[in-house]
Design a protein that fits this description.
alpha+beta, 5-stranded antiparallel beta sheet, 3 helices, about 40% helix
Length: about 120
């Protein structure tokens, strides 16, 4: 009876993701990486399976739900960029939209963690 309403809600445009977070000093990058790990667990609803200084991956025990991975890579001027990707399994419209919203929320959360840390003007990691 309300199928059309549910379909319309699922088809609503997902927000444009916030840009990938970047950090400029070691202290800021470390704080953002800790938040990245916390956020990945929060948005996938699972524990982390891979944890390193440059890669995080969530655990997906039943092969359904959201799987997530995060990479930290150097970019120009001594900064690092933190990129997240979520994969929906099975690839349903509902889970895909959840994945898109999770990217937005993840980027906002990690960026906010970085803004709490002030880097010295001439800082280099």
């Amino acid at each position: 009876m309300y199928g059309w309403l549910i379909t319309a809600a699922l088809q609503a445009a997902a927000p444009t993701p916030a840009p990938s977070p970047t950090c400029t000093c070691a202290r800021q990058c470390d704080a953002m990486w800790v938040e990245a790990a916390t956020s990945l667990e929060r948005y996938t609803g699972t524990r982390l399976e891979v944890i390193s200084s440059f890669r995080l991956e969530s655990h997906l025990p039943r092969m359904e739900g959201l799987y997530g991975s995060v990479e930290r890579r150097p970019i120009e001027n001594g900064r690092d960029e933190i990129n997240v990707a979520f994969m929906a399994l099975p690839d349903t419209q509902e889970l895909q939209m959840r994945a898109e919203r999770s990217v937005q929320a993840f980027n906002e959360s990690v960026t906010a963690a970085g803004k709490r840390i002030q880097c010295p003007a001439s800082s280099a990691k």
